[in-house]
Amino acid sequence: MAEEKVVFQRPGALTDAVTNYCPGCGHGIVQRLVAEVIDELGVEGTSVGVAPVGCAVMAYDFFSCDMIEAAHGRAPAVATAVKRVHPENLVFSYQGDGDLASIGMAETVHAATRGEKITVIFINNAIYGMTGGQMAPTSLPNQITQTSPYGRDVHAAGFPIRVSEMLRELDGVAYIERVTVDKPANVRKAKKAIRKAFEYQLEGVGYTFVEVVSTCPTNWGMNPQKSFEWMRENMLPYYPLGVYKDVKAEGFADVYEAAAARAAECPIANKE
Q1: C-beta neighbour count of 106 within 10 angstroms
Q2: Per residue, what are the HEC states of the chain?
Q3: pLDDT > 70? residue 1
Q4: Closest C-alpha among 165, 199, 210, 181 to residue 28
Q5: 129-147 pLDDT tens trace
Q6: Per-residue pLDDT tens digits for 2-47
């Protein structure tokens, strides 16, 4: 009789709790990838995650590592405090677009520009999920939501925020990549991005950020299959996938070296 081999199992960094995510939602996939990378790096015992307010508000039930619940939008501030007290730990926040790009935009921008050595996992599904489907900062032009029943009017509500493109201009940012998890090839790419972000953090390179373009079938009013089709047709052209910043790939050791090169013509910025 052939010996049986384990070919697939729950990552150790995930608990066996049943998640509250809707069918077709990307949260479950992304959280599994985060847990797999934590396992592979062997850092579960020194990892601290910060859960947001939103659909992932109960992430503390799903990860086996230490978790902290933050007030709405304040996850980067909490993560900053943890990392500064425990610089040897892997510290990450896990946030949706309403939490990160609306209520927590100030915390997001300032943590990034300070070069805080934390990792932010950002789920962009172009809508407020848990609160019932309101328009988010990332909702697309003409997208119908509970608070834009005739579609997002950019003349009244402004344009969607492309967060990765915005943050890449900040000197404290070491690495930004936008990914999605709609098919196996993209799931593998997303995992590589999360791993690189965590590794850069542990190496002290700077602030790292992974944006995951995802779906919200329930609040989009679609079944899972249709929601992925809608995401590919509408979200990916507006939020193109790819690496938006990688200071090590540019030949720098960390954000400080990269920032010094960028400000080479400014005497006071390079004063020792």
Answers
A1: 12
A2: CCCCCCCCCCCCCECCCCCCCCCCCCHHHHHHHHHHHHHHHCCHHHEEEEECCCCCCCHHHCECCEEEECCCCCHHHHHHHHHHHCCCCEEEEEEEHHHHHHHCHHHHHHHHHCCCCCEEEEEECCCCCCCCCCCCCCCCCCCCECCECCCCCHHHHCCCCCHHHHHCCCCCEEEEEEEECCCHHHHHHHHHHHHHHHHHHHHCCCEEEEEEECCCHHHHCCCHHHHHHHHHHHHHHHCCCEEEEECCCCCCCCHHHHHHHHCCCCCHHHCC
A3: no
A4: 181
A5: 988 999 999 999 999 999 9
A6: 788 888 899 999 999 999 999 999 999 999 999 999 999 999 999 9
- Scan for tokens 């300070």, then name that residue: 114
Torsions phi, psi for 68 (to 5 deg): -125, 135
For 153-162, what is the mean pLDDT? Answer: 98
Residue whose entry in the numeric block shows the structure tokens 């992304």: 30
How far is residue 252 CA from its own chain's centroid? 23
User: Tokens at residue 221, please?
Assistant: 């009013």
Q: What are the backbone dihedrals phi and psi of residue 159, each rounded to the nearest 5 degrees, phi first?
A: -95, 155
Give the pLDDT band of residue 156 (cuts 50, 70, 90).
very high
pLDDT digits (tens, 9 = 90+) for 37-58: 999 999 999 999 999 899 999 9
Over 80: is that where the pLDDT of 171 sits?
A: yes
